[in-house]
């Protein structure tokens, strides 16, 4: 039996928050392992949200969440420019539909200022309809939030995890933590990992991991948010994010353009007990349609392309729950409920700050450049539109998924990337394949063949089955224990730059 891996820091959870923390720590001299229970990173809540890059204008002032969302907005904006994560600066418009909501708008403007955001502006009904002519009748006024933007949550998660791997982090996928004993993590498959410090960024599972450390301080309630996605033909109707005026019962239902050129309506907010209940429901569908009928009746004439649901990791307090226990060498990052996409990088910075009295978290001087991610944004040039790219490599001209215009070149690249997809859904998150109007009805067979051949167009059907260990790209299964390294007495790791860990991840390049 192989000896357990060892490292300075193990980060549990390969969502946006865990990937951001692993990336931050991967930029130090500490050996870091990112542990994900599912077969892929970004397969939990981080894949199914409304994908808005929030300014934090409506956060509760004075909370940790308000500080980290505001900071995360700037950090992720800069990071998106550096890596090619698509962002559209659409702006948002809160719309008041009754006198009570209208009366609440000035207070929201003041709240935004308390949160350090002073760009909101109150507007009358004429301006509301000038900005969104297709809104339903009865809008009384609005509040503009120029900085609110839409972003690709899939690319964000993947960029952070890829960057982490490029920086030397060992990524273990398909390793669900089931036991913790004095710095030793045991996975469901029986393997284990010894870590000096453990960071719990397990999202919906964060309270269970917390229990393994002997705590009983919070319970995660999965709060389901269902959404409807409308066809791209609806996109012109929704030039900005249309937000409801928040009430005591939540943020309410919004209508928003998506980064892939569609329109979404949602989310619902429903507390459940089942942490795996990501299915949509007939009740949610009718609720959203009735909301949509008031907000924008003509939207309901458009085709619904897809429905999906995400689970917010709600806890019984109105803030993030981030706390360090030096005696256990353990950090809890819990309750990252509805703003974690935006705040992820700031949470990582905050966690590094908490660790700094205990570990050397100073950035290394020799960091690799951030990865350049494939563009999934509809507003920016895609490979099928790029004549120069196609003439250099005709695979970018061979469209496989016609709804979303995804080419063989992009699918090939996804499999050659540092973190290749584990299954069809993972491929969809990396390329948009099968994400369109036909939902794979026309392209499914060809995409499946490319999955089977790991993106090699010339060898359909002759390769390993999807989802096997090699297709998961589990870095440890390639680099073995040496990729993680032994923990030195100073906390630095001698094999930190070892060829197996770094070369394996970065030499496969992937991102164009
Ligand atoms: C409907 C909805 C809309 C939202 N809209 C927005 C928005 O517009 N903007 C915004 O900023 N935020 C939004 N959010 C919030 C945002 O999506 C989350 O805050 C964020 O994705 C949380 O990331 P995470 O890494 O904490 O969790 P996750 O993405 O869930 O990652 C946690 C990971 O931990 C893994 N894990 C759990 N237990 C274990 C274990 N025992 N062993 C190993 N791994 C484990 C899971 O498999 C999972 O991959 C929304 C959320 C929802 C549900």
Tell me about this structure.
Pfam families: DAO, Fer2_BFD. This is NAD(P)/FAD-dependent oxidoreductase. Residues 476-512 have a biased composition (Low complexity). The chain has 512 residues and is an alpha+beta fold. The chain has 15 helices and 22 strands. The chain has three domains: 5-47 and 154-219 and 317-370, FAD/NAD(P)-binding domain (3-Layer(bba) Sandwich), CATH 3.50.50; 90-149 and 221-310, 2-Layer Sandwich (D-Amino Acid Oxidase, Chain A, domain 2), CATH 3.30.9.10; 383-417 and 420-470. The strands form five sheets. Strands 1, 2, 9, 10, 11, 12, 19 and 20 form an eight-stranded mixed beta sheet that branches. Strands 13, 15, 16, 17 and 18 form a five-stranded antiparallel beta sheet that branches. Helix 1 (16-26) links the parallel strand 1 (5-12) and strand 2 (32-35). Helix 1 (16-26) runs parallel beside helix 5 (153-166), helix 1 (16-26) runs parallel beside helix 8 and helix 2 crosses helix 8 (340-355). The longest helix has 20 residues, at 64-83. It is globular and about 65 Å long. Residues 458-512 have low confidence and may be disordered. The protein binds flavin-adenine dinucleotide. Residues 12-18, 35-38, 43-46, 49-52, 54, 176-177, 201-205, 209, 225, 267, 310-312, 336-342 line the site of flavin-adenine dinucleotide.
């Amino acid at each position: 039996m192989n000896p357990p891996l060892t490292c300075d820091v193990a980060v549990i959870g390969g969502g946006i928050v865990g990937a951001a923390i692993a990336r931050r720590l991967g930029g130090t001299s500490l050996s870091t392992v990112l542990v994900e229970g599912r077969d892929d990173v970004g397969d939990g809540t981080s894949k199914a949200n409304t994908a808005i890059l929030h300014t934090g204008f409506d956060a509760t002032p004075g909370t940790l969440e308000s500080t980290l969302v505001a900071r995360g907005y700037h950090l992720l904006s800069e990071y998106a420019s550096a890596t090619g994560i698509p962002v559209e600066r659409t702006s948002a418009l809160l719309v008041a539909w009754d006198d009570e909501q209208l009366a609440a708008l000035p207070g929201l403007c003041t709240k935004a200022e308390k949160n350090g955001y002073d760009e909101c502006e109150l507007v009358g009904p004429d301006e509301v309809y000038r900005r969104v002519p297709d809104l339903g009748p009865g809008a009384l006024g609005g509040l503009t939030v120029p900085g609110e933007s839409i972003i690709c949550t899939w690319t964000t998660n993947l960029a952070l995890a890829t960057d982490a791997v490029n920086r030397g982090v060992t990524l273990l996928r398909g390793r669900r933590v089931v036991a913790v004993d004095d710095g030793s993590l045991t996975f469901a498959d029986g393997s284990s990992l010894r870590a000096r410090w453990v960071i719990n960024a397990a999202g919906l599972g964060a309270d269970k991991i917390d229990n393994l450390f002997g705590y009983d301080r919070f319970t995660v309630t999965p709060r389901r948010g269902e959404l409807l996605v409308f066809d791209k033909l609806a996109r012109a109707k929704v030039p900005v994010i249309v937000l409801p005026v928040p009430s005591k019962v939540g943020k309410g239902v919004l209508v928003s353009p998506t980064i892939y050129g569609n329109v979404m309506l949602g989310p619902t907010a429903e507390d459940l007990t089942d942490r795996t209940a990501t299915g949509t429901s007939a009740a949610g569908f009718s609720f959203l349609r009735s909301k949509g009928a008031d907000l924008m009746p003509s939207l309901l004439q458009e085709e619904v392309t897809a429905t999906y649901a995400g689970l917010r990791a709600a806890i019984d307090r109105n803030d993030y729950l981030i706390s360090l226990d030096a005696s256990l060498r353990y950090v809890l990052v819990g309750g990252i409920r509805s703003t974690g996409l935006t705040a992820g990088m700031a949470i990582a910075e905050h966690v590094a700050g908490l660790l700094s009295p205990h570990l050397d978290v100073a950035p290394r001087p020799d960091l690799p450049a951030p990865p350049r991610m494939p563009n999934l944004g509809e507003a920016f040039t895609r490979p099928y539109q790029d004549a120069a790219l196609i003439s250099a490599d005709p695979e970018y001209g061979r469209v496989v998924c016609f709804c979303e215009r995804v080419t063989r070149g992009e699918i090939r690249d996804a499999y050659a990337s540092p973190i290749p997809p584990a299954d069809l859904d993972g491929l969809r998150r990396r390329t948009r394949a099968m994400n369109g109007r036909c939902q794979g009805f026309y392209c499914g067979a060809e995409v499946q063949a490319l999955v089977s051949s790991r993106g090699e167009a010339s060898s359909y059907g002759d390769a390993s089955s999807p989802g096997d260990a090699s297709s998961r790209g589990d870095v440890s299964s390639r680099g073995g224990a040496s990729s993680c390294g032994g923990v030195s007495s100073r906390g630095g790791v001698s094999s930190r730059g070892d060829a197996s860990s770094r070369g394996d991840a970065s030499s496969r390049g992937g991102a164009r």
